[in-house]
Amino acid sequence: MKMLNFAIDRIASDVGVILSQSSVYETEPWGFESEKEFLNKAIIVSTFCTPRELLKKIQTIEELQGRKRTEGVYRSREIDIDIMFYNSRIISEVNLIIPHPLLQDRLFALVPLAEISGDMIHPVIKKTVSEILKDCQDHSLVNKLPDEK
């Protein structure tokens, strides 16, 4: 939880104002085997960063927490921060695709996102996050953790 809180604090100081945060969810790994569970949380941030600047800043936050990049390989890592949406923009550039191309396939991302932004319309799929969540074929475990005191 300490790493998650550090990342959120750095996003607030380096990226922009955090407008909303979901609960924390403990989830199974997706796309690979791992002995440990993961913690997931969604946040909504108001930022003046361009999408490319935002990516650079969150990658710096990941690196500060020990993230080593291995392209194309799913494996356990200390931290993984993804950009799910950037308002309703559609971006397809080298190393930057928004909305996140696998969002609709991942309960671990959809559940926390639906908690805080269920009415957000996916600009490609043209459904709300809540509708996409209902249609998701992923059956991984996603357990909401009790709120911290």
Low-confidence stretches: none
Strand content: 15-25%
Radius of gyration: 15 Å
- Numbering strands along the chain, what is their spatial order in the largest sheet? 3-2-7
**Mean pLDDT across all amino acids:** 89
Amino- and carboxy-terminal Cα gap: 13 Å
Tally of domains: 1
CATH superfamily: 7,8-Dihydro-6-hydroxymethylpterin-pyrophosphokinase HPPK
CATH architecture: 2-Layer Sandwich
Helix content: 25-40%
Summarize the main sheet: 3 strands, antiparallel
Structural write-up:
There is one protein chain. It contains 4 helices and 7 strands. The relative contact order is 0.20. The strands form 3 sheets. A 3-stranded antiparallel β-sheet has the order 3-2-7, with helices on one face. The protein has a single domain (2-144), classed as 2-Layer Sandwich (Alpha-Beta Plaits). The chain is an alpha+beta fold.
Secondary structure blueprint with pairings:
Blueprint lengths: L1 H13 L1 E6 L3 E3 L10 E3 L2 E5 L3 H14 L26 E3 L2 E3 L8 H11 L11 H7 L6 E3 L5
Antiparallel strand pairs: 1-4, 2-3, 2-7, 5-6
Keywords, please?
30% helix, 3-stranded antiparallel β-sheet, globular, alpha+beta, 149 residues, two-stranded antiparallel ribbon, single chain, Alpha-Beta Plaits, 7 strands
Please outline what is shown here.
It is built from four helices and seven strands. The protein has 149 residues and is α+β, with helices and mostly antiparallel strands.
